[in-house]
Specification:
Blueprint lengths: L8 E2 L1 H8 L1 H8 L8 H14 L2 E5 L2 E11 L4 E12 L5 E9 L8 H17 L5 E6 L4 E6 L2 H20 L17 H4 L1 H5 L2 H13 L2
Length: 212
C-alpha cells in the first residue's frame, strides 16, 4: 500500500501515540496544543537544528532539518540531523540523529520515532539505514540505536495504529498515569477528574445497586 501526499501524518504523531493515544488525538485530531516549560525548553533546544543548513568535514556531511517522508507508511516530517558518511565505494550512508530535551527512556517512544526517520531515508534514498542515534540534552550524550527487525515491526505497527486513530477521528477517554502530571495538555485532558475517578464511580454504583 502507498499513501497519497494528502494522507501523510506527522512523524511526531508516532511518539505522541506511544506516550498516550488520547494525547495524540488531542493534538492531531482536535488540533489542541498548549506550551509548557518543558515543551518550551525542548523547542529552544531544537532551534539550531530547525534552522536547517549543512556542514561538511572530510568524509562526513551533516544536514539539519532535512525534510523526509515515507509513502509506504504514510509519514512525513523533518529529521533533526542526518549525518552522511562516505563509504569505501564513494557512496554516502545516512545516519539519523534525533535530538531530545530530557534523558534516555526505557520505553521505545523515542526509538520508534528514530526508526521511522530511518525508514523514510531508506525509501527516499534506496539505501539501508542500519543504525541511528538519540541525543539527549540533559545527558549531553548519544544513545546508539540499532534499526533492527523488531524495532522496524514495532514502528510499522504504531504507524498503522496512528492512521487508524486519525481516520476514525475519535478521541479516546482519559486514563490517569503518573506521566500525565508532566503533560502540557493535562489541564485540558483532566485525566484525574475523568479517567482517574472512573473506578471510584464504578465502585459507588456497584455499592448502590447492591443495597436492599
Amino acid at each position: 500500500m502507498t499513501f497519497a501526499e494528502a494522507d501523510l501524518v506527522p512523524l511526531s504523531a508516532l511518539q505522541h501515540y506511544m506516550v498516550c493515544p488520547r494525547q495524540c488525538a488531542l493534538i492531531h485530531v482536535e488540533q489542541i496544543w498548549v506550551e509548557s516549560g518543558l515543551t518550551a525548553e525542548g523547542r529552544l533546544q531544537h532551534e539550531k537544528v530547525d534552522s536547517g543548513g549543512a556542514e561538511s568535514r572530510r568524509d562526513v556531511r551533516r544536514v539539519l532539518a532535512l525534510p523526509i517522508r515515507c509513502l509506504r507508511l504514510g509519514l512525513v516530517g523533518k529529521a533533526d540531523v542526518v549525518e552522511f558518511y562516505r563509504q569505501p565505494d564513494k557512496a554516502w550512508r545516512p545516519y539519523p540523529v534525533e535530538h531530545k530535551r530530557g534523558r534516555r527512556k526505557k520505553e521505545d517512544w523515542d526509538r520508534v520515532q528514530l526508526c521511522a526517520q530511518a525508514l523514510c531515508l531508506e525509501e527516499m534514498l534506496n539505501v539501508p539505514v542500519p543504525e541511528g542515534a538519540l541525543f539527549y540534552g540533559k545527558e549531553q550524550r548519544r544513545e546508539v540505536v540499532e534499526i533492527g527487525e523488531a524495532l522496524r515491526r514495532e514502528t510499522e505497527a504504531v504507524a498503522a495504529a496512528v492512521h487508524k486513530l486519525l481516520a476514525e477521528g475519535r478521541t479516546p477517554s482519559p486514563v490517569y498515569a503518573r506521566k500525565c502530571d508532566s503533560c502540557s495538555l493535562v489541564d485540558i485532558c483532566l485525566p484525574k477528574r475523568v479517567g482517574g475517578d472512573t473506578p471510584r464511580v464504578a465502585r459507588y454504583l456497584t455499592k448502590v445497586m447492591e443495597e436492599p
